[in-house]
Write a structure and sequence with these properties.
- There is one protein chain.
- The protein is an alpha/beta fold and about 260 residues long.
- The chain folds into 2 domains: about 150 residues, Periplasmic binding protein-like II (D-Maltodextrin-Binding Protein, domain 2); about 90 residues, Periplasmic binding protein-like II (D-Maltodextrin-Binding Protein, domain 2), CATH 3.40.190.
- The strands form 2 sheets. Strands 1, 2, 3, 4, 5, 11 and 12 form a 7-stranded mixed β-sheet that branches. A 5-stranded mixed β-sheet has the order 8-7-9-6-10.
- The radius of gyration is 18 Å and the shape is globular.
- The protein is built from 10 helices and 12 strands.
């Protein structure tokens, strides 16, 4: 079994019990690359972006017990940086990190359905040099977003919009950014063993949050901020999180939000 590992701090509690030799092959990749690898049949499990899961659920299922990365009210590591108000971004160019799948679709959904703005979406790899001279906003996720939030000058941007905060204000539901999945063609025994291993590793990780934040503090923020960040996540998905997943799926279809073009 080949499992993708997302190299972000918010996923680290899941990896605490993996050790040097977990019972499967491990490959590191950001969310958008994980989605591409899953489509190509190159991985059998991973912490998959929710939006990619919608496209791939014929081949993958959420593990049981259900786990993922969800946050209520705020998240800190999925942010839109800008210098204008949200209404001021109407008709502007907005950059989108190439690491993102779910967050890019959430941003487009919020823009169309909640903020009522029409923007031009620019892949970040097309931006050369200082982005502030070329775009009016930039979506960052994961550790890069944490670094931007920790920087005294917010990388030169004056406004930050937390997408989980916007979703909560709209629906009063947590937002589920990613779900742990396993390929349906694996045997039921393999899927169950994988889910059990993940659940046990997460239990270890949640006891070791102090160690995790000490290891990663610095450019991502000070230990107290990072502890609050990690302890804020819901890693076990209950009824509210599953309702939020269904709500997100329906809204993407209702507002005809298309996936970002696959790169690579």
């Amino acid at each position: 079994m080949k499992v993708a590992r997302i190299p972000y701090l918010n996923a680290e509690p899941f990896y605490a019990g993996w050790g040097e030799a977990p019972p499967f092959e491990v490959v590191d990749m950001v969310p958008s690359a994980l989605g591409r690898a899953a489509r190509a049949g190159e991985i059998d499990g991973g912490l998959m972006a929710t939006a990619d899961y919608f496209d791939l659920e014929n081949d993958f299922e959420i593990v049981d017990p259900k786990m993922g990365v969800a946050a209520s009210r705020h998240v800190r590591s999925v942010v839109l940086l800008s210098n204008d108000s949200l209404s001021g971004l109407d008709g502007q160019r907005i950059g989108i990190t190439g690491e993102s799948s779910t967050s890019a679709q959430l941003l487009k959904l919020l823009a169309r359905a909640r903020w009522k703005i029409d923007a031009e979406w620019v892949p970040e790899h097309e931006i050369v040099g200082d982005p502030r001279g070329q775009i009016a906003g930039l979506l960052l996720i994961g550790d890069r977003a944490l670094e931007a939030m920790a920087a005294p000058d917010r990388l030169g941007w004056t406004r930050t919009t937390d997408l989980a905060t916007e979703w909560w204000a709209w629906h009063e539901l947590p937002f589920v950014f990613a779900v742990w999945v396993a390929r349906r063609s694996l045997s039921e025994r393999e899927r169950d063993r994988f889910a059990g291993f993940l659940a046990g590793s997460l239990a270890v990780g949640q006891l070791k949050i102090g160690e995790l934040v000490t290891t990663h503090s610095g450019s991502l923020g000070d230990p107290d901020v990072l502890r609050q960040y990690l302890e804020h996540f819901d890693y076990r998905l209950d009824d509210a999180e599953l309702e939020a997943v269904d709500r997100f799926r329906r809204l993407l279809a209702e507002y005809e939000i298309e996936p970002s073009p696959v790169r690579g």
